[in-house]
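Troubleshooting: if your tokenizer reports a length mismatch, compare your output against this known-good record of 351 residues.
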Amino acid sequence: MTTKLDELRTRIAEERSKTPDLRARDLAKALDISEAELVGSEVGKTATRLTGPWSEVITTFGNLGRVMALTRNEGVVHEKVGEYANMSFGKHGGIVLNHDIDLRLFLGSWEFGFAVAEETRSGPRRSLQFFGQDGTAVHKVYMRPESNNAAYDALVDQFRHEDQASLITVTPLPTPEPDRPDADIDTEAMLTRWSKLKDVHDFFPMLRKYKVGRQQAVRLAEGRFSQRAPLDSATKLLHMAADRETPIMAFVGNKGLIQIHTGTVKDIQPRGPWINVLDDGFNLHLRTDFVKEAWVVRKPTKDGEVTSVELYDADGAMLIQFFGQRSEGNAELDAWRGIISEGVLGDGVAA
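Known-good structure output:
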């Protein structure tokens, strides 16, 4: 008797035979399934389903040694090589506070986990892959030649899900509430509160207080705390940061976590619609054609004004956020402000 799993595996095999080089995310889209369902179809073959608590699973990542951490959203892929260390967890989330792997975790959005061992053209590849309730990837960890494979095996044994046979069931995410009409926002009160910020982390509580969307707030602050920027702002600032060896911070997130790079960038390469950072230990891939709005945003703090560059997609979701490298208690780098004024808002970078 043919099962749904058999049928799905047949469909996947047929699609792979037609487009063998298609990445998992794109293959899932071609099949009109989620990436988690695609990976889940390989349970018992190349994949092992895992169970939480996810905070305990993540804690064991510290035993893996140097790995590659990957976080992405619809338009950006952020890859960092390093070790999971300095981890702490609360009721709904956690922090990995290491220089190389620096994460803010929102574990309520993690639903499915798998250990995947597959053969590729470059040899065996082992990974840990995690997905939200709708089957969208939230975080992946890839083993490297120097990683601790015994620790990986121990993790899989410890967190092996009792059900290694059933297809997973994904459920759509709730439809986000639309932003309230601008006329319903007390814009002046919000901007007054904005002017009194003491820390960049006070920004989200301000949004909640005035029940305003992030992109909406940035737009309402135009001319006071925000300024529209060219859609190619990322390309400009990355080139200039590389040329001037100015350390930056790049934040990429989804509903499950935010992954942060802090440091310099060197090898900036455009390829088709992508602008890429191809450095040892850090790769960034941004679909420039997905950028529909770009903003320079300024926030006052006790250490002085802090400036970010924020890129949004057609749905108003943030693709990526850039800052100059800064630690608490220190002022923003003049070199970063120069990149903003000359490269992003000016014409200081050659195309």
